[in-house]
Design a protein that fits this description.
It is a single chain. The chain folds into two domains: about 10-155, Jelly Rolls; about 160-265, Orthogonal Bundle (Arc Repressor Mutant, subunit A), CATH 1.10.10. It is globular and about 50 Å long. Helix 1 (about 110-125) runs antiparallel to helix 2. By secondary structure, it is of the alpha+beta class. It starts with 7 loop residues before the first strand and ends with a helix. It has helices at about 110-125, 130-150, 160-180, 185-190, 195-205, 210-230, 235-240, 245-255, 260-265, and strands at about 10, 20-25, 30-40, 40-50, 50-55, 60-65, 70, 75-80, 85-95. InterPro entries: AraC-bd, Homeodomain-like_sf, HTH_AraC, RmlC-like_jellyroll, RmlC_Cupin_sf, Tscrpt_reg_AraC-type_HTH.
Length: about 270
């Protein structure tokens, strides 16, 4: 019997006050591999300078400056870079709806890339009221995705799996909103009308991650932001983001990132 491959399910936390996450690709200096993973978000990986080898499943795409790849929700993907490059990544959470987009080349590619570039420049400047401008540009880009790049119903594959991923997406969307609360697997299962064993299997099979690890990854994303942007104490950050106390938070933080949160905070 062929062994089923598993891939890490990532939690995508939008930028503060915005309905998306936008960032500079961390492998900008080259010789970097982002291993195969997936998440409940549509992702656009766009190369500004240099080249990058992008993989959707087993299919390889060589992206040069001015080109991008669209990754659908829960599509397995990875990035390999050998030389210096610069790329930007836009992640759009899609937990509450299933839409699929085609990355085939179109006349509008240049327009979509220009909107991404415009968003990236505004994010760097962060001038007064930039969030409003960012959202304005983002909705232009989203309109383009929906009207030009969205797949028609007859081209969607694996409908049954998409429905199940849609159910899991609603659950992960709920966790994104209630991550700071004390949410056990049993409580979550009761909220959505599942038995705990079935919900646990759903996370492992379709999310490729343990429920507890997924919830913790959301909490870490928010805690990192607090460490970087606020003067809150470690204890305050721990309690604010769903950790029982500062000791537990510090221990788990060191296990994940290799340093204590106090040291991370000092470096910021």
């Amino acid at each position: 019997m062929k062994e089923e491959k598993t891939y890490r399910q990532e939690a995508v936390v939008p930028d503060r006050g915005l309905p998306f996450k936008l960032f500079r690709f961390e492998g900008a200096d080259g010789k970097y591999i982002r291993e195969a993973h997936q998440h409940c978000s549509v992702e656009i990986f766009a190369v500004r300078e240099g080249k990058a080898d992008a993989y959707l499943g087993d299919k390889k795409y060589v992206l040069s400056a001015g080109e991008f790849m669209i990754v659908n929700s829960n599509e397995v993907h990875s990035i390999h870079t050998s030389g210096r490059n610069e790329a930007i990544v836009l992640q759009i959470p899609m937990e509450k709806q299933i839409m699929r987009f085609s990355g085939e080349k179109r006349e509008e590619d240049e327009k979509l890339f220009a909107l991404l570039e415009k968003m990236y420049r505004q994010q760097i400047r962060k001038e007064y009221g930039y969030e409003l401008l960012m959202q304005s540009i983002f909705y232009q880009l989203k309109y383009l995705l929906l009207t030009v790049y969205q797949m028609s119903d007859e081209r969607k594959e694996h409908c049954t799996e998409n429905r199940k991923m849609g159910r899991l997406g609603k659950i992960t969307g709920y966790l994104q909103e209630h991550y700071a609360e004390e949410i056990s697997l049993e409580t979550l299962a009761a909220t959505f009308g599942y038995c705990p064993t079935y919900l646990s299997k759903m996370f492992r099979r379709y999310g490729r991650i343990n429920y507890k690890d997924y919830l913790r990854s959301i909490r870490f994303e928010h805690a990192l932001r607090e460490l970087e942007e606020t003067d809150l104490t470690i204890g305050e950050i721990a309690l604010k983001n769903g950790f029982p106390n500062s000791q537990a938070f510090s221990r788990l933080f060191r296990e994940k990132y290799g340093i204590l949160p106090t040291e991370y905070q000092r470096r910021q």
